[in-house]
Specification:
Distance between the termini: 45 Å
CATH architecture: 3-Layer(aba) Sandwich
CATH topology: Aminopeptidase
Number of strands: 5
Structural class: alpha+beta
Largest sheet: 5 strands, mixed
Order of helices and strands: EHHEEEHEH
Oligomer: single chain
CATH superfamily: Gcn5-related N-acetyltransferase (GNAT)
Strand content: 25-35%
């Protein structure tokens, strides 16, 4: 990673527009290919992640440009409170430079500062993110299975 200084801060619903722009720019491309053309659905989704009392959203900036986001929530559990990450991404044009690793480190520091004891997230096994997380010390939860049912 170059000597560029990055800004890291907690975000709120006030930044929803810029969060949504970055989110769409990443997840409408390979390997995700999500279709976020329904702007109302996108606004509702961002609100669900950023606008709740237990929401926890972080942003990574290069100068004034938002280049990374992590959206999730604080989840209270019998063993302590954790950061449940629903979405995490780095701008496609910035990937492969160590910025994601830097962002994860800053997220971990912030979570420790908030007294959180764990970070939990889901990702597809066949997505590049799977190996990214494994290389950064995340462990696959072997005793958890995700279920889904189309209605």
């Amino acid at each position: 990673m170059s000597s560029i200084k990055y800004g890291f801060k907690r975000l709120s619903e006030k930044e929803s527009d810029v969060i949504g722009e970055l989110f769409v720019s990443v997840f409408e491309k390979e390997p995700w290919n999500d279709d976020w053309s329904n702007e109302n659905q996108l606004k509702l989704y961002i609100h669900d992640l950023v606008g709740q009392s237990n929401s926890l959203t972080f942003g990574l900036y290069e100068k004034e440009e938002l280049i990374g986001i992590s959206m999730g929530r604080i989840r209270r559990w019998y063993s302590g409170s954790e950061y449940y990450i629903d979405e995490l991404c780095i701008s496609a044009s910035k990937q492969g430079r160590g910025i994601g690793s830097f962002f994860i480190e800053k997220i971990q520091e912030a979570c420790k500062g908030l007294g959180l004891s764990n970070i939990f997230l889901l990702t597809d096994k066949d997505a590049p993110a799977f190996e990214f997380y494994k290389k950064r010390g995340f462990h696959e939860a072997k005793n958890i299975t995700a279920f889904s049912k189309r209605l």
